[in-house]
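[stage:ingest] chain + small molecule (6-O-phosphono-alpha-D-glucopyranose)
[stage:ingest] validated
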Amino acid sequence: MCGIVAYVGDQNARGILIEGLKRLEYRGYDSAGIAILNASSYLAKSVGKVAVLEERVRQDSPNGMTGIAHTRWATHGKPTEANAHPHSDCKGKLFLAHNGIVENYQPLKKHLIAEGHVFRSETDTEVLAHLIESAYHGNLEAAVQKALAQVEGTFGIAVVHAAHPDQVIMARRGSPIVLGIGKNESLAASDASALAQHTDQVVYLEDNEVARLEAGRFYITTQGNRSVNRGTTQLEISQEAMDRGKYPHFMLKEIFEQPEAVENALRGRLSHSEGVAKLGGLESVMDRLQQARHLIIISCGTSYYAGLFARYVFEALTDLTVETELASEFRYRKLNLRQNTVVLAISQSGETADTLAALREARRKGALVLGLVNVVGSSIARETHAGVYSHAGIEVGVASTKSFVSQITILTLMALLAGRSRDLSFEEGSVLLRGLEKIPDQIRAILTQSDRIRELAQKYSNAQHFLYIGRKYQYPIALEGALKLKEIAYIHAEGYAAGEMKHGPIALIDPAFPTIALAPEDGSYEKIVSNIQEIRAREGRVIAITSEGNDKLGDLVDDVIEVPRNHEILTPLLTIVPLQLFAYHCAVLLGRDVDKPRNLAKSVTVE
Ligand code: G6P
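[stage:predict] done
[stage:export] tokens:
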């Protein structure tokens, strides 16, 4: 969603800020803006892509070595220039960019208007600029601290003031801010990927902290002005990870990185001698995990489908009662969390507002809260009691691919660990470990079919609707495959439990409504074949994803994509890959913006 970049140093700020915004484009946004401090202060905003803003800035060529920039994903007020950030105070001296939501903006705005402040936008953010203006008496940092004490809601902010051209003030509560400290320059952003090409020395701001940045220096205080001592840490994002390399889109690059994503997820975590997985991040809570009776998994979007998969795996390998819950709904349920309930939050970004709110609720009720998160140092990673990092590497494409595969790999390891500390046998554990080790090469083999899957996309991408069906371990894959097609190709797709098809969706089936059937030769194979027959009887076209060498589907289906054979628990790691490629190729053929699909955001920081 919204993105912030800030710079103070010895370089011209404009190029660095625009470049930073481009690095944040993947998060999703609909307008952008920039403010640069110089003799007259420069402010430019535009609706649409950063390239539009870039062109404006190129023509105006503002000079200045301090500035802030923002990409906005509209919440309060339409995506217009007036609503785009940075917002300024009445005098046009102070500029502010904000991620998050000011919940009490209406009473604050009323009060500020009564004081004589003039508002120019419909946003909640603008009240922050005027609040700081009202609290400002020569010390910008103090004014920010004082203003934020009146704010309810979440924020990550960047503030500059013409009277302090050598300073940028940053602050956060609930919305991430990371500082990047270079030799003669300091940067800040809402996402470390915007800083990676300038410095690898970063500082993560904590909630209710305020940072004053000067060139090459930073000072952190609490909102109450207590000084905080914190050193920099090494950033682990490589420049290569941020580039598309030989691929036309990040999404395709990330689909092709999946063998390595699985290798990274497994690295150092398999103990063949004990037939178990080793997850260092869970060691401190192993006692409580052993006593757990009840597991609730909370997450959103693709991570939710990973959680749905995990339910089947935990149930198969352990005696835990497992529930999977959409984080956005979790808070509305009256849950009686007992002492031995464990809550697991799954999130690629570690910043999804609903997941964060749900895990806070679970903590409040006394549950042990674990995390499975990709982004190191993110809010969810910090607010859980213990957890595991995916180590999938930075994922830029809005539609999650390698993160999903990494998540379901690690969830299998978690279930294996929990199972082996209960009654799962060494032999059963070993079979899974051996199967897991085959996965990277098996995914590589599927990736070689990309051209053929593109041909299938050519054949089917004119369809307006698709049905995806699967059973048991393949049911979450049907849901995830359908989500991919919706997200990036904008084709309506329904994921369904195959057995449920006859209770509704079968009414939709006709020659124009194709079905993708997940039909590997696992324990549910015969049943899914019956479902395919039901579709055929209604003249529906079917693409089947099945096991290598299965020639029994014959005339029953129109097209077949084969995946290598493995344990049925592990087969979803394979069947998802052709579905990702199918969605990708459909989206490209239809001319969609694959990496930045309309209306979507990579990291959803509003509830
Ligand atoms: C957004 C993204 C999805 C992602 C979901 C949950 O909707 O576009 O790709 O699955 O958020 O995000 P998380 O970072 O918590 O996994």
